[in-house]
Design goal:
Oligomer: heterodimer
Helix content of chain B: under 10%
Shape of chain B: globular
Strand content of chain A: over 45%
Shape of chain A: globular
Largest sheet of chain B: 6 strands, mixed
Number of helices of chain A: 0
Number of strands of chain B: 11
Largest sheet of chain A: 7 strands, mixed
Helix content of chain A: under 10%
Strand content of chain B: over 45%
Radius of gyration of chain B: 14 Å
Low-confidence stretches of chain B: none
Mean pLDDT of chain A: 95
Chain lengths: 111, 113
């Protein structure tokens, strides 16, 4: 089944403890992206990748890192999480940059 | 910078009627615009894409229009059903040659039986 998977789905952590949210797609898509969704602010793009080793900032990249070493994986790294990074995170992938397929979401709480 | 606005108030309509949702944008001329459906606690699901040279696009009971002069897209669901109840998101591409996207905050639609 064609899909985008994210792990973990739920995470509660404490300020400053490094964490990684994984994202994987099995559709051989070139493009991948991370978003965060907050009430009243909608979906905001954090980072995106247009191919292996090619990444760029979205609208809200501060406090996040990404890497794209393989086509199928695009992990999101929070080196020192803070409470304002508490949010619902979505990974998305696309073959041609116009139709996006979203993962199920990761709900992160930073205490 | 680009700005995209959707009616943040919920839209309630009676089953069988046509729902019309609005997406307005400023400070930009996107090459295309997309509509997504999102159910509570789930990821958005792509519905339709319309390009700047297309006035209208249809898919089953869905219709999208794109007025580049007004900088507005309208999303219609005809013969609406309670199963159509969800939040609908508008998104525009954020720059040629990039994978940048700007999303609206969404409009929550409730179809009453």
């Amino acid at each position: 089944e064609a899909q985008v998977t994210q792990n973990p789905r739920y995470l509660i952590t404490v300020t400053g403890k490094k964490l990684t949210v994984t994202c994987s797609q099995n559709m051989n898509h070139e493009y991948m992206s991370w978003y965060r969704q907050d009430p009243g602010l909608g979906l905001r793009q954090i980072y995106y990748s247009m191919n292996v080793e090619v990444t760029d900032k979205g609208d809200v990249p501060e406090g996040y890192k990404v890497s794209r070493k393989e086509k199928r994986n695009f992990p999101l790294i929070l080196e020192s999480p803070s409470p304002n990074q508490t949010s619902l995170y979505f990974c998305a992938s696309s073959f041609n940059a116009d139709t996006q397929y979203f993962g199920p979401g990761t709900r992160l709480t930073v205490l | 910078s680009q700005k995209i606005e959707q009616n943040s108030e919920a839209l309630n309509i009676q089953e069988g009627k046509t729902a019309t949702l609005t997406c307005n944008y400023t400070n930009y001329s996107p090459a295309y615009l997309q509509w997504y459906r999102q159910d509570p606690g789930r990821g958005p699901v792509f519905l339709l894409l319309i390009r700047e040279n297309e006035k209208e696009k249809r898919k089953e009971r869905l219709k999208v229009t794109f007025d580049t002069t007004l900088k507005q897209s309208l999303f219609h669901i005809t013969a609406s059903q309670p199963a159509d109840s969800a939040t609908y998101l508008c998104a525009l591409e954020g720059g040629s040659g990039t994978y940048k996207y700007i999303f609206g905050t969404g409009t929550r639609l409730k179809v009453l039986a």
